[in-house]
Design a protein that fits this description.
The chain is an alpha+beta fold and 257 residues long. It has helices spanning 2-19, 69-86, 122-128, 157-162, 168-191, 236-239, 245-256, and strands at residues 29-32, 36-40, 46-51, 54-57, 62-65, 93-96, 101-105, 108-109, 112-117, 140-145, 154-155, 194-205, 211-214, 222-226. The N and C termini lie far apart (44 Å). The structure holds thymidine-5'-phosphate (TMP) and aspartic acid. The site of thymidine-5'-phosphate has 11 residues, from α3, β12 and β14. Aspartic acid is lined by residues 34, 56-57, 59-60, 235, 239.
Length: 257
């Protein structure tokens, strides 16, 4: 009886461990982007995403390394995607496997970038001649066509449909998720003393055609300013050669953890 009990507990512990995907391993290399690599697994509908330290800016014209950026971005994405799932935003994240690896649902990326701007900065400030830091009276969502050769141009909904990037119905779903994500992230960063200035997200479609939030949410893909001092705590430190890039990334992670 006692013995059976022990075996039972052991089996339960083992099944719990496998449920946490400790045995999932990288199989074939599938794809390498600017900041991540994607590998197949034994499950055709799941992939392992490996976060690198490589940093690029201005459509890869500027290249460098940010030490341990991959560790920060993997961890931060894991924390935020887990919480976003609880907020009703389905996403590709399944489990964090190691410092730099996460197990995700395999998706086909929708070739659009959704950018939310709560404060004007970056390309919008430059393109429209608006001072960085200006708070607009309305919520701004840009969509860009994900195409490196064209420099990811800003497009509109009609263009996205004409390009075959998404249907009007898909766009409606992605805009709704984008608004929910912004509400959640703004509040989450605010609690950590950080202003969420703007950010970029991407979506994908899983094997059943469901739209899932994909890619990452990290200091690479957000502009994050300290609420008190206005200090930049994101990839602009790399883009604009401001120094202390690593420190800023770790500080963001520590604050939101
Ligand atoms: P932008 O001001 O350069 O258009 O950037 C808006 C936001 O999108 C900013 O938080 C940085 C993020 N972003 C990316 O994540 N990837 C990119 O390739 C670009 C251009 C911006
Ligand atoms: N990720 C983009 C690139 O290299 C740009 C950026 O984040 O500024 O090309």
């Amino acid at each position: 009886m006692f013995c059976l009990g022990i075996i039972g507990i052991f089996t339960l512990a083992l099944s719990k461990l496998s449920a946490q995907h400790v045995f999932m391993e990288r199989k074939e290399f599938i794809y390498e982007g600017k900041a991540k690599q994607v590998y197949s697994t034994e499950d055709p509908n799941k992939v392992i995403i490996f976060y690198k330290d490589d940093a690029t800016a201005f459509n890869a014209q500027k290249r460098g390394t940010v030490q341990e950026k991959g560790i920060v971005n993997n961890k931060m994405t894991a924390i935020l995607f887990k919480k976003l799932a609880q907020e009703g935003v389905p996403n590709h994240f399944i489990d964090q496997l190691s410092d730099r690896e996460q197990l995700c649902h395999k998706v086909e990326i929708v070739p659009l970038e959704f950018v939310v701007r709560n404060v004007i900065a970056g390309s919008m400030a430059k393109r429209l001649g608006i001072e960085e830091g200006t708070v607009p009276p309305n919520q701004i969502i840009d969509i860009c066509y994900k195409k490196d050769e064209l420099g990811d141009p800003l497009i509109n909904d009609d263009h996205a449909v004409a390009l075959g990037a998404a249907s009007y119905e898909d766009l409606k779903v992605m805009y709704a998720y984008t608004r929910t994500i912004n509400d959640f992230l703004k509040a989450e960063f605010d609690k950590s003393g950080i202003t969420l200035v703007d950010f970029k997200i991407e979506f994908g479609k899983d094997a059943n055609g469901n739209i899932l939030l994909a890619d990452e949410i990290s200091p690479d893909t957000c502009r994050l300013w300290d609420k008190e001092t206005g200090k930049k705590m994101d990839k602009d430190r790399f883009r604009r050669d401001l120094g202390n890039v690593e420190e800023a990334y770790f500080e963001v992670l520590n604050r939101i953890s």
